[in-house]
Specification:
Layout lengths: L6 H16 L16 H18 L3 E4 L2 E4 L5 H21 L10 H22 L2 H28 L2
Antiparallel strand pairs: 1-2
Helix pairs in contact: 2-3, 3-4, 4-5
Length: 159
Amino acid sequence: MLQGFGRRQFIGLMVLCGLTACGQSPEPQAIPFKPTASIHDFMVWGLEPAADVIWGNAGYIITHDGEQDLQPTTQEGWDHVRNAATTVAEAGNLLMMPGYAADPGDWVEYSAGLVMAGIRARDAAQAKDADALFQAGANLYSVCLACHNRYIIQVQQGI
């Protein structure tokens, strides 16, 4: 035994060394990102239906018969909007993922805009705030339009 160390001190030192080793972080491993759909299919099957829920539950429609308020009237309706808004926000995160991200510049900025629009729509749904939901839907539309103007036009023009 080490001179000046009793059995208890030695065991305590060994436990401390063991705990210190356990506290060290393992080497970071690459996350195996694997997009499961083309960007077009992801937009059409995932993002667009979720955005349509937000747009379909905000604002008014004026018809020959009068004005129709689109805001949800039940908790289930608000929950449906909340869930769709969460999907929009997370879709923005997914669009920044390797395999979906078109570039680290504008694409990431637009994707981050989707995240913020989705969060605002979710907050509005949770607060049952029809005006805030309408504004969040307008923000979402602006982000979608800007991205489509930048990327869909390039694809159509072969740029």
